[in-house]
Design a protein that fits this description.
single chain; mainly alpha; 5 helices; 0% strand
Amino acid sequence: MEWLMIAIGGGIGAWLRYITALMVNRWNTSRFPLATLLVNLIGSFILGMAFGAGDWGAGISTGFLGALTTFSTFMYEAFELGSIKLWLSVTYISISLIGGLLMVAAGYMMVM
C-alpha cells in the first residue's frame, strides 16, 4: 500500500510542479528560474511541517515532495545562470539553500 501512496503523491506533486511552472513562466520573462525556486522553497516548508507533525508518511515526503521539488533541475538551472552571469547563479543557489533551510525550520516550528 505504501508504494501506491508514493505513486499517487508523486503524480500529484509532478502535476503541481508543471502547473506552477506554466503559471509562473507566464509573467516571469527573465531567465531566472523562479518556478523552481518557488516549488523548492514551498516543498521545504511542507517537509518541515511533515517532520514537525510526526512524519506524514512516504506518500507525502517521498512521493509528493519528491516529485514537486527536484535537485537535478535546480543544478541545471544554476549551471545555465552561471553561463550567463556568475552572480545570478550564486544568488539563485544562495536563496535556494538559505531559504530552503529557513522554510524547513518555519514549517517544523509551525506545527510544534
